[in-house]
Amino acid sequence: MKPLYIDLPTVAGMVSLSTDSVQRQVREENFPKPRQIGPRRVAWLVREVEQWAEERPVSQILPPENTGRRAA
């Protein structure tokens, strides 16, 4: 079963950002806000994070030449 909620480190890994970058984007209202799931616990809805990721624009910047290549 797919999780409904994920914590900050998992969110950061899922979207390839640092935890600081996720928190900054939440403050700047450029990323979904976490939900209160307990008295002292917050987490993100997986579907909201996935939706945010799907809505990112396609990059015109090509990856560096060495991306994905193994040394011979």
TrEMBL record:
Q: Can you name the source organism?
A: Massilia frigida
> Which named protein is this?
AlpA family phage regulatory protein
The source's domain of life comes to Bacteria
Q: Per its UniProt record, what Pfam families does this chain match?
A: Phage_AlpA (PF05930)
